[in-house]
Structures are given as C-alpha cells and as structure tokens.
Amino acid sequence: MRIRTIAPAGILTALLLGTLLLATAGATGRFTADDDKAALQGTWQCVSSEMDGEKQPDDEVKPYTLVFDGEKLTVNKAGERIMKGSVKLDPAQSPRHIDFKLEENPNNPDDVGKTLPGIYEVKGEELKWCFTLPDRSERPKDFKTEAGSSRVSAVLKREKK
Fold first, then answer.
1. Residue 51: how many other CB atoms lie within 10 Å
2. How far apart, in whole angstroms, are the C-alpha atoms of residue 7 and residue 1?
3. Is the residue at 103 inside a domain?
4. Where in the sequence is the domain holding 106, given as residue range(s)?
5. Is residue 5 part of a domain?
6. What's the CATH code of the domain at 153?
7. Disulfide: which of 36, 49, 62, 131 matches 118 by Cβ 3.0-4.6 Å?
C-alpha cells in the first residue's frame, strides 16, 4: 500500500491560493452580509465623531459604545442603554450599506420604528459608520458630514475582551 503525501510546496501553494481567493473576494465585495455580520460582532468604543460638519468633543464621544449581537445593535452611553434596534447589512453596495431600525429610543420615542440609513467599513479592529438621522435625508454616499446634512460619522475601535 502506498501512502501519498503532499509536498510542503503543495501545502504552501494551497495556502497562498486560499489567501488570494479571500483577498479577491474582499476586494470585489463578494463577502456576504453574514461575513460582515460576523466581523461586526462584539463591542466597539467610539473614538471620534463628526456631526453636521463639526467634530464632536472627545469627552462627549468616548462614553459611547456599540454592541453588535447577531442582528441586534445596542447603543450605550457611559454603560447605560440609550438605543436598541436591528441591523440590516448590504455589503454588495459600494460603499457598504447598513440600516439601523430603532426598536427602543427612550430619549426620542417618536423615532421608534424608524430607520437610520447609513454606510460602513470594517478594517480589522476599526469600524467607520456614517448615518443620517431618521426622516432627515437620504443615505450618505461617503463618510463626510456637512453643515445641515443631519449626518453623523463615527470611527470606532473594537474593545479588547
């Protein structure tokens, strides 16, 4: 009986081919919403934010965290939940689309049931998210905000476990 082995060069070639296929899928947007949903899972700390063209002060931004759990998103400020809802991702769009449908918003109960249309980008441990406030404007096309745009753009870092 003859046992066939794979030469180390064959293993290396397979690994390189697999890496190339993954990189190509990412570059061409072929990752699915499930891929992005998995990449977003966990807690994200806000490190910077801009609204209507103005940078928000760090001491107002840093208390915010986003917690992605499955298709649910919870927004906390200083450890207290201030919003909760469901998230729908569409990574086939460029830039990638994210819709946050509010299910709880004690500070603005009239916004419950409304959607914040946005765009997002995940690169490793960094998340960029730009969204429009409910009923104010259309989905952003880039991560910039301008005076009167009713847009918020934030950069978040994944919290270490």
1. 17
2. 19
3. yes
4. 32-158
5. no
6. 2.40.128.280
7. 131
Q: In tens digits, what is the pLDDT along the chain, a chain of 161 residues?
A: 443 333 333 332 232 223 223 333 444 445 588 999 999 999 999 999 999 999 999 999 999 999 999 999 999 999 999 999 999 999 999 999 999 999 999 999 999 999 999 999 999 999 999 999 988 889 999 999 999 999 999 999 999 87
- In the chain, what is the straight-line distance between the N-terminal and C-terminal CA atoms, in Å? 50
> What's the total number of domains in the chain?
1
Angle at the Cα of 32 (from 29 to 38), degrees rounded to 5? Answer: 115
Partners of 44 in beta bridges: 66, 158
Residue 106 DSSP symbol? T
Residue 13: CA count within 13 A, CB half-sphere: 5
Strand spans (E) along 41-137: 42-51, 54-55, 64-69, 72-77, 80-90, 96-104, 115-123, 126-132
Whether residue 37 lies inside any domain: the answer is yes
Structure pTM? 0.78
**In DSSP terms, which residues pair with 80 in a beta bridge?**
77
Element (H, E) at 34: helix 33-40
Establish if 27 belongs to a structural domain.
no
